Amino acid sequence: MKWFSSIRAKLLLCFLVFILLFNIVSIAIYMSSNRLTNEYDTSFERFLLYNDVSQHANELYEHTRAYVSERGEEQLNAYFEKRADIKWNVERLRAEQGEEAFHLSTYISLIETHVQNSEITIGFVLREDVEGYTAFLQETQNTAVYIQEDTLGLIDFGLTEYQSMYRDLQSRNEAFRTFAVFLFATTACLAILAAFWFSGGIHKPVQALSSAAKEVSKGNFSGTPVKIESNDEMKLLGDAFNRMRTDINAYVEEMKEKAEMSRLMNELEFKHLQNQMNPHFLFNTLNTVSKMAYLENAHTTSELMDSVSRLLRYNLGSADKAVPLKDEVDVVRSYFHIQQTRFQERIDFQIEMEEEALDVNVPRLVLQPLVENACIHGVESLEEGGTITLRIFTQGPYTIVEVADNGIGMTQKQVEAVFARSVEEAAHVGHSTQIGMANVRRRLQLFYQQEHLFDVRSTLREGTVIRLYLPNEQENEESA
Questions:
Q1: Left (φ > 0), alpha (ψ -120 to 50) or beta: where does 219 sit?
Q2: Which ranges of 71-129 does DSSP label H, i.e. alpha helix?
Q3: What is the pLDDT of residues 433-453, one digit of tens each?
Q4: What's the domain range around 92?
Q5: Domain boundary among 128, 160, 194
């Protein structure tokens, strides 16, 4: 049943059963006790009534005798009040007639006779008939004695019935005691059964979920699904836990695959960047070296060859180690020397830096791709007046590296290629140098675990400014 498919409904049903059971028992005990109490009260009130009748009958005789003796107004009023009391008692006796109807009828007749005798006596006194009131006063006394005797008989008869009622009361008390013991035992058994029922429906699923949660906390996301047979909230909880564990397992596997793929792509892209030596640049460099060796002495040629060798050695270095910014600047100096030798007065290379800002650690090969981009795609096509400037300075928590040129600039599409999410996207929209710049941006993000570390501002026919925001050493250590 659908309404019974929840723990709350089961608890409410058990509570309602127990409450209904106790209410029925309480009502039955109350009604039985109330009936016995009423019977007891009725019997006791009847005994009191018999006693009042006997007492009033005797007092009626005494008031009658007092009036006969003194004949005063006070005695007569007292007589009338007592006669009214005894008549009221007669009316109460008539209402009480039941199993004692025969005895009460005789008793009531005797009381009425007693009242009549007293009235006749009073009448003879008023007529000054001494012989009459003397005879009826004696009759009044005799009926008072008879009433007392009958009262004792009725009380004795009532006590006999009361003994029977008392025995019945004792028997019922014994039955109630036995019933109470039976009710306690039955309730205890029902409570134990209900406890076992709920413990089987709640404790076992919770235990299963707890064991499965411990397995998950240890990193085991592929355990046996939790099976819960009940149809309440525990089953919903178990199904939700199984779905959650399955989803987490799938997510973890997906993350592992993505991490492995990202690592392979990063290695591939970095190797590609390391090996990315422009054939045109190498041809022009070697041609320049050949001409210089022909036209000059060996000193200039030697310096040029040293710059080329330093550049090649640095490019072929270990890719998984960070280097001080100073090493990157030295490589750029070698690159500037080679290009200065090649272009002579056509391009001016400038370096402006703060020496204390060169100790920050950076990924290998982050400056040369930017300088190379400024040279090849920025100022190489200019016949004269080309300038490339490398600036390094500290600004707040960052070391700023700025590569600026006054070349032909970049289109918006080329700038967007630099900020592509992957090298593959950059390849679709930009030149190979833009691919290198996108790789630099991504490696900076991976190295510092921050997003906004790379900025490009470019205007066609006016030049390009590239800025790197390198966190200082303290920031590096915190992020590591």
A1: left
A2: 73-95, 101-126
A3: 455 677 788 888 888 888 889
A4: 2-194
A5: 194
